[in-house]
Write a structure and sequence with these properties.
5-stranded parallel β-sheet, NADP, 507 residues, globular, FAD/NAD(P)-binding domain, 9-stranded mixed β-sheet, Flavin_mOase-like, FAD-binding_MO, N,N-dimethylaniline monooxygenase activity
Length: 507
């Protein structure tokens, strides 16, 4: 039986994979590609998470695609509406036939003689393993494990006689009406769940070890809606997107340049929305500077409203042990609970957990350096997507997809079969790929690729910088090596690889 061959294999049918498919379909319509999705549905995160109140923590004008206007009045959107938007995008762009569900990529091996990846794929629903080949792999499967979330070891966990739930595996039949709920955590998931459950549960407590910076944001973007009304959905979306990109960037720069002023401003904004005399510094003043970790947004101040209404509260303490009917804190206080929600984070994994080899050598991501934040040093014909940590994560998706298509078009034009980033200066200093203090990153930082101290090895977190870097017509770079098929071959025949590279750089 003949092995199927693809020009591009996209791994993951979430927001990044659907975006990559759309750009390939539009910019390079002759390319043969497939999108492999391990789960039984598209949408990635937005199909996986089912906890109460699941929503975006960025506005959809920047979190959504540049090419597809966000038409809803609500800029902070619920998961069902985001999922509908993503699936509309797939259908409108003819991607549905390209998506293969229950297909999990287990490993991929690149052979320089054939300039191809051989990919091992498991059918999750049947257990059958197959192989296919591809010229390129585009890893769009996200940055965390879908099959398990992160839960620390809690002393006495087995003693608790109520229900323990992790948000990543929310039971559809969980009944919390009239129940006492403790949500362990203080990140985006926790501040979403608490107000969403507070209207139904008897009481909800957010138990945090360390406070997080929290900002209220209107669910509806009044100016954005006015722009869409008067300019139409396409132009209105474009102008709203520009406005919100600039706003996100301004907030980040203000926080980094004037951290103490930012601290005071955020505290003042929080205090205005909390009950008079509330201990703001105890529960809403983190020990780190703003944007050392990602800010949490609460739409229309819903968390503060629940606290004012008395249906929710915040406790800052450490867990001593779980008890039969709740949690005993380090202070000696007991928190009664019928349900404990462990909103304690994600398990990050590099490259979706796929094992890569190049000419028989196993690729250890930690030994590589990221090229333009989308390829790995020494790894040919492989691209991946990682978004921003200081603004909408997916703002970078479109830019990377555009650059990827430019790169493939350049290779087609010149007859190149292999593209491999190589570091010219082996002594170049490196540092962690993500300069970010979140716990889920710190836990695996030694397993992730590195970044350098200069372009193109510097991982940009600036949209403006990336527009200049990734939207440029030229993709050639002295540290991006092109060649024809074969270890020593070259496009056009007769030239050595170095000659081809120099010709490419000089063109």
């Amino acid at each position: 039986m003949a092995v199927e061959h693809l020009d591009v294999l996209i791994v993951g049918a979430g927001i990044s994979g659907i975006g990559a498919g759309r750009y390939l379909k539009t910019e390079l319509p002759a390319k043969r590609f497939a999108i492999l999705e391990a789960r039984g549905a598209s949408g990635g995160t937005w199909d996986l998470f089912r906890y109460p109140g699941t929503r975006s923590d960025s506005d959809l004008h920047t979190f959504g695609y540049e090419f597809k206007p966000w038409r809803d009045e609500e800029a902070i959107a619920s998961a069902p509406r985001i999922l509908e938007y993503l699936r509309e995008t797939a259908t409108e762009n003819g991607l549905d036939p390209h998506i293969r569900y229950h297909h999990r990529v287990r490993g991929a091996a690149f052979d320089s003689e054939t300039a191809q990846w051989t990919v091992v794929v498991e059918r999750v629903d049947t257990g059958v393993t197959t192989t296919l080949t591809a010229n390129w792999i585009f890893a769009a499967g996200g940055y965390y494990r879908y099959d398990e979330g992160f839960t620390p070891e809690f002393t006495g966990r087995d003693r608790f006689q109520g229900t323990i739930v992790h948000p990543q595996h929310w039971p559809e039949d969980l009944d919390y009406q009239g129940k006492r709920v403790v949500v362990v955590g203080s990140g985006a998931t926790a501040v979403t769940i608490v107000p969403a459950m507070a209207g139904t549960a008897a009481h909800v407590t957010m138990l945090q070890r360390t406070p997080t910076y929290i900002l209220s944001m209107p669910t509806k973007d009044a100016l954005g809606n006015a722009l869409k009304k008067h300019l139409g959905p396409v132009r209105g979306h474009a102008w709203t997107r520009r406005k919100n990109i600039a706003q996100q960037r301004w907030i980040w720069r203000f926080c980094k340049r004037y951290p103490e002023r930012a601290r005071r401003l955020i505290r003042w904004l929080n205090a205005r929305q909390l009950p008079e005399g509330y201990p703001v510094d105890e529960h809403f003043r983190p020990p780190y500077d703003p944007w050392d970790q990602r800010l949490c947004l609460v739409p229309d101040g819903d968390l503060f409203k629940a606290i004012r209404a008395g249906t929710a509260d915040v406790v800052t303490d450490r867990i001593e042990t779980f008890t039969e009917d709740g949690i005993r804190l380090g202070s000696g206080r007991d928190l009664p609970a019928d349900i404990i929600v462990t909103a304690t984070g994600l398990n990050v994994q590099a490259l979706g957990g796929v094992t890569l080899t190049v000419d028989g050598a196993v690729v250890n991501p930690a030994d590589t350096v990221a090229y333009k934040g989308m390829m790995l040093s020494g790894v040919p014909n492989f691209a991946f997507i990682v978004g921003y940590t200081n603004s909408s994560w997916t703002l970078k998706v479109g830019l990377l997809c555009e650059h990827f298509c430019l790169l493939l078009a350049h290779m087609d034009k010149h007859g190149y079969a292999i593209c491999r980033p190589e570091i010219a200066d082996p002594a170049m200093p490196t540092r962690p790929f993500l300069d970010f203090g979140a716990g889920y990153i710190r836990r695996v930082i030694d397993q992730l690729p590195r970044q350098g101290d200069r372009l193109p090895w510097l991982t940009s977190m600036s949209y403006d910088t990336d527009v200049r870097l990734l939207r440029a017509d030229r993709v050639v770079d002295p540290e991006l090596h092109f060649s024809g098929s074969g270890r020593n071959g070259a496009a056009g025949g007769g030239q050595g690889q170095g000659a081809v590279e120099q010709a490419g750089v000089a063109e």
